[in-house]
Design a protein that fits this description.
- The chain is of the alpha+beta class and 84 residues long.
- The chain contains two helices and four strands; from the N terminus they run H-E-E-H-E-E.
- Strands 1-2-3-4 form a four-stranded antiparallel β-sheet.
- The relative contact order is 0.20.
Length: 84
């Protein structure tokens, strides 16, 4: 089962290099040597926060970044998207 928690500082720093415009890192999911960052635009995150409070479920959409730890170093291995 994947874990969702904060990422190590070096992974956060690497992910921030791939942010576009007003994107922020919404959450992380970790499974073995793989880590995925869910990204969302800051303005959309603020708007979705209201519906999350009202409906008690997460809402939004954005990009994902997938990282893999190889020989002690993190590398970007994929990009995708998410919606909920």
């Amino acid at each position: 089962m994947p874990e969702t928690d904060d990422a190590p500082p070096e992974l956060i720093e690497l992910a921030m290099q791939y942010l576009e415009g007003e994107e922020i890192i919404l959450s992380w999911e970790h499974k073995g040597k793989h880590s995925n960052a869910r990204l969302i635009k800051r303005s959309l995150a603020e708007k979705c926060r209201e519906s999350t409070r009202h409906f008690r479920i997460g809402a939004g959409c954005g990009r994902t970044l997938e990282f893999y730890r190889r020989d002690g170093e993190w590398e970007l291995v994929g990009k995708g998207g998410w919606i909920s």
